């Protein structure tokens, strides 16, 4: 440990720059992980959404993601963080409270955590009481909450009212996300029951997929023309966003042991093994069935692999990560590319980016396979699932698989009900859908801006446009 250097701090109080309880390595890794997760949202998902949608929705899609990222922060520190990770109010929900007080974020003293010894006798930081300020944890968990809401947006792009979205974000964070987070991570009933969700396969991805699909039902479909012709406007931009998303997952899964230990290294390696395997399998299916590889398909395969490994990242051996990659590159491919076209229900509900397939289905697969492949030794490193193991390792392991399925049912059920209630309440005051004019025109009608402008367009607008003709009219004619 570094030596203690006394300094004046918080007025007349005295503390230390480097108190003897602080593990600088763990703190640095946690802040880096938080930044990596945050970058998955901003700019990762913002760029991905801006590029993967039709041109007239590029700005609106990016704005919905950007707004969600910003709106979550004040809600998070003022009440939502403690609802997810604070004192119990009821078995599946925490008591609201602020997380902005200095004595909470940077405590003057911290009781030593119980040391955790790995298999070689080395000492590691215990997951439940890390050696760093609470401020690092609040920021890390904020990034998860923000990304979850941004993922949800992918199901309703191209028609949800911006005003309705602006109200929906804080309400959904408060009444839906915090429930799943507290139940599984924050000490709720699923936590004590032993549900395994290493880094958010249920809390983040299953929740966003189930809620997004539900929201798509209540908001209604895009215009028929948009559903039939919704080609990405900028695939290289989409790829840039996807690349940030992939590399950012290093912090998404690697930061969840809450320390820079053996388990975090295993989680990072497994994350990339599964993602790469899933991408390759998805691409192979595209070539086998359609005769050519698809870049958008490869991105979908990457995402399903990342989602699938998330609940298991630090709990399974690397051979299992390969198996999970094969499954996550196959099952969601089938549901998206084949079942989606055959099912009347799936055709009726317009899930713009297929969040149901890439996040909900992949999340359920990951959670279920965690119940199969979680290794006893690796599980013991992750304190909330100590003494748990997957069915593959015999004994009572089969019970864990059933628990995982029950946990998935709770997350799906709660998100369907909570999301429906929130949107029905909003609908009393604000239309959930854009106006017909906005649906027809797109970004220019909604924001007064367009994603791609040319010199010729500006010259026409300012010098040669006939009286009474607006830039919006020209855009409308061009569609």
TrEMBL record:
Region feature (Disordered): 455-479
Matches recorded under InterPro entries: Ammonium/urea_transptr, Ammonium_transpt, Ammonium_transpt_CS, NH4_transpt_AmtB-like_dom, RhesusRHD
Segments of skewed composition (Basic and acidic residues): 470-479
A Pfam family the protein falls into: Ammonium_transp
Entry's transmembrane regions: 28-50, 62-81, 138-157, 169-195, 201-220, 232-252, 264-283, 295-313, 319-340, 352-374, 405-430
Keyword Transmembrane helix: yes
Name of protein: Ammonium transporter
Source organism per UniProt: Dioscorea cayennensis subsp. rotundata (White Guinea yam)
